[in-house]
Amino acid sequence: MCKNLAGPGSDRPGDPDAARAVLLIIALTGLLRIALASLLGLSVDESYTVAISRQVALSYFDHPPLHVWLVGAWARLVGTEQPFLLRLPDIIMFAGSTWLMYRLTASVYGDRAGLWAALALNFAPVLTLNAAGGILPDGPLVYFSLLAVWCFHRAAHARLPDPRRQRWMLGAGATAGLALLSKYMAIFTILSLGLYTLSCRRCLLRRPDAWLAALLTLTLFAPVLVWNYEHGWASFAFQGSRALPADLNLQLMAVDFGGQLLYLLPWIAVALLYALVRALRRGPWDEVGWLFACLAVVPIVFFSLVGLWTKVLPHWPAIGWLFAFPLLGQLLAEIEQRRPRAVHRTAAATAGFVFCVVLLATSQADTGWLERLAPAFAADDPTLDLLDWRDLRSSVAALHLHERGMIVATVSWIDGGKADYALGGAVPVLCVSRDPRQFGLMIDPHALRGSNALIVAAGGRPDWLQIAEPHFRSIELLDDVVLTRAGRPAMSLHTAYGYGLKEPEE
Known about the structure:
The structure is a single chain. The chain is an alpha/beta fold. Among the domains are: 12-241, no CATH class; 387-501. The protein is built from 23 helices and six strands. The protein has helices spanning 16-39, 44-53, 66-78, 83-109, 111-123, 125-128, 138-157, 162-182, 186-200, 208-220, 222-230, 234-241, 250-264, 266-282, 287-306, 318-322, 325-338, 340-367, 369-373, 391-399, 413-423, 439-442, 464-468, and strands spanning 407-410, 429-431, 453-458, 472-477, 481-485, 488-501. Strands 1, 2, 3, 4, 5 and 6 form a six-stranded mixed beta sheet that branches. The longest helix has 28 residues, at 340-367. 45% of the residues are buried.
């Protein structure tokens, strides 16, 4: 049988100093994220999410619906699509995730370990930037995944009477369902919990509440199943195709895994790997350490193998790295006892490094100062993804598109999201790309046959006319629209009139 080698930290009362320190971390990082949310425009994915959230559906092409439902409902409640307000729920959720990381780790390894786990979580860019303040599925995924594991841990390990254990297990099922309703990556957390239960030979599978919890998870995920059934399993096919086997490439695998480590910060990644390997070596005899190891290893190994034949984005396996942070917290608490000054100095240096990088990137996104020092940087400026296309509004308003019964057409879902968010839904946006994502389901092209359109494309696309021409009877080029940043030109948008929308096969 498994043994709980967690130590006395799992039973002792909370340390108020550690709890206050975590609350201070939450407050300081929350204020920083609020400042960033106020300064930065919406990214490509955020703009796309806001645009498709205006149309309520059981699910959506790219991801399950929870984050889309959330931003759509919140925008209607506050009556605006201002970036700061739209990002506020995700900022609040990551504050909750930080507290959950602290409580989960502290309940097992002690309060100092919980403090270090929560602090390290806020240092790792792949989590503190991607999941903490963007209108993305990663925020709800992280929050509900942590909540599900917390509930599972309480049901499996806490010294509680059976009725309370059963309630915690049902809570695990409900929150796992919400995590899966946020992003498909939550399946790895659910599979890992199953692997842990089987490898630990616990009696959980003999308990009815475990099966009721699984049924509850499936019930909450039902809208996604219904939507996929009605749309030919489109979302499952799209996401699954990204992991299909192809030619093996060890160099690609190394680059992908290196990207994971880079987005965690290399020194944090090395410590996470060491802590994870240590837990794996202890094996199932360390009951809770094995739980975290199972939760971490399954997605990390899966995406490392997938990296042999396809590009793996660093945030895909982040759901695995997330559950290595309690192990890292335990490791840092142990090192702190022996070498407190080294740990504290490293933490301070890491905080300073992350703050400086965020400050430089934010100031570049807001003002474009780097391009004035190095003009060549303008061609590949990644911060342009955060530039809202609000200057497009005046051009569209001057053309009186709505009064003339015209629409806006884009040649990619990326441009579609940017244009639709900028226009606030005032004009229908049609994506004529071969990969329109959710835009391909929002508007029926047959209902718009014969319509005229303003075609809009990002200035960096040389093939925009080639993509658009098959969809219109004729096209008339117009002047580019110049988007500004801090009063200076930042990028341009190609525009044209498209007359007589038709089907490509005509």
